[in-house]
Structures are given as C-alpha cells and as structure tokens.
Amino acid sequence: MKKYKSSIIVGIIFFIIWEVIARIIDAAYILPSPSKILEKAWQLKEILFLVHLPATLLVMSIGLFISIVLGVALAVAMSLSEKVEKAIYPIVVVTQTVPITALAPIFVLWFGYSIWSKVIVTILITFFPITVNVYDGLRSTKREMEELLITYGATKKQVFLKLKLPSSMPYFFSALKVAVPLSVIGAAISEWLGAQSGLGYFSKRMMTQLDGAAVFAPIVILSFVAIILVSIINILENKIVKWRNEV
Fold first, then answer.
1. 109 to each of 43, 86, 106, how far by Cα in Å?
2. Which among 48, 61, 60 is positioned nearest to 197, based on CA atoms?
3. Nearest to 165 by CA among 49, 64, 72
4. How many angstroms separate the CA atoms of 35 and 104, rounded?
5. Do the Cβ atoms of 187 and 60 come closer than 8 Å?
6. Can you say whether the dihedral through the CA atoms of 213, 187, 75, 73 is positive or negative?
7. Cβ proximity of 30 and 215 under 8 Å
8. Is 4 exposed, middle or buried (0-12, 13-18, 19+ CB in 10 A)?
C-alpha cells in the first residue's frame, strides 16, 4: 500500500479538482463531475456490469489470448532464424502504420457485428508490443553465456529453455503490461465503430442522448478493469520472476 501512496494522493487531488471544475462549468453533458459519473454508474449497474461489461471482457480475453500466442510464436521464430526475422519483422511494423479506425469498419463489413470483427481489431493493437518485447528478450542473452552452455554440451533446445526463455520473461511481462490496456482500448474502439453490445457501444449510444455521465461511466469502468488486470500481472511477475529481485 505504501508503494502506491503517492499515486493515490495524486489521484484524489485530480478528482477533487475535476469535481470543482465540473461544478463551476455546470454543464453535465460536456463535463460531468466524478460524483455524477459514479451516481450514473450505480443507477445503470445492472445493464453495465451484467450485459455490456461481460461482452467487452470476452472480446478482450479472446483478443489478448490470440495476441499472446501469435506474438510469442513470431518472436520465437524470428529469434531462431535471421531469414524469418528479415521477412516477418517489417510486416509486423507495417501492421501498426494503418489507422485502426480505418480498418474497423472494413472488419465489420467482412464479419458483420459478430465478436470476430472486434477481436481482430484488438489483436492488431495488442500483438505488436508482445512480439517486439519478447523478441528483444530472447535476444538479450549474452553471447558468452550461450557459448559457455554449448561448451558444456548443451543443445540448442537446452540453451533456449535454460537461458533464453528465462531471460525473456521480464520482457514478456512488460509486454503484457502494455498489451492489457491496449486490449481495453481495442475492444472499446471496435465496439464504438460497430457493435450491438459492450461498454464502448453503450458509451457511444449515450453520446447521442447527450448524457455526459453515462458516456463517462463505461470509460471509468474500463479504466478500473485495466488497473486491476495490470496489478494482477505485477503480482504474477513478482512470483514467477523471483530471480530478478535476487540479482
């Protein structure tokens, strides 16, 4: 708790300032106060938490799972073969140059309002940091260490499992800390541009009704979801990558 004391204090100050400014402006459809947003979230708790939040979490979960599998597979392939790296890496970079807001409507056209149009958007946003970070992690091992293991008779498989894989774990968890918030953004954007359920869809629908508090309520929920998920990743990292704290 002490570790996050400063963040909590800054957060409280931020919300107090926001509350004061919102009350001075007194235009809830433009800038609702935090108290109004929480009140609205409580009023709409059943539809937000029982209908739209599960829909968004499902998109995030599927997209993030596929991104992890795809990203790690590409990173391993590039680390094992220089030819593969030269062929794949530029394509991986190019996928991040096309605006997602331009592609999302196309995916809706191809897949309709099914879950897969939203999952693909989430994958495109999240797989890049996983691929790049894990690839850098696999390359981070010192050549001297690899040569030492080979000298002792280690096979390439053993070098990968005993040296490269453990060395890449901190990079993997760092990638997850980036990918998880991005999966929230990806799911929300895809729902905003074309969906029949989800927090992004609900936020957009409330905008047409000029209900500022209802527009902000899903955003606040998504922010808390991202914070909780990143905190869980931090806990897992501290338990799995214990050796980093001992070095």
1. 35, 33, 5
2. 48
3. 72
4. 34
5. yes
6. positive
7. no
8. exposed
How far is Cα 122 from Cα 104, in angstroms, rounded to an integer? 10
Query: Which residue shows structure tokens 């001297």?
Result: 144
**Could you name the CATH architecture of 34-246?**
Orthogonal Bundle (1.10)
**pLDDT in tens for each of the 247 residues of the chain?**
556 677 788 888 988 898 888 888 877 777 888 889 999 889 998 999 999 999 999 999 999 999 999 999 999 999 888 888 888 888 888 888 877 777 777 877 788 778 888 898 899 899 999 999 999 988 887 777 776 777 777 777 777 777 888 888 889 999 999 999 999 988 888 888 777 888 888 988 888 887 888 889 998 999 999 999 999 999 898 888 776 555 4
CA atoms within 13 A on the CB side of 229: 21
- Residue 116, classed as helix, strand or coil, is helix
Taking alpha carbons only, the member of 205, 216, 207 closest to residue 39 is: 216
pTM of the model: 0.85
Amino acid at 73: A
For residue 216, what are its two tokens?
């902000």
Cβ contacts of 68 within 8 Å, gap of 6 or more: 130, 176, 179
Contact (Cβ atoms closer than 8 angstroms) between residue 193 and residue 105: yes
Q: What are phi and psi of 208, to 5 degrees?
A: -65, -20
CA distance 87 to 169: 25
Q: Which amino acid is at 140?
A: S
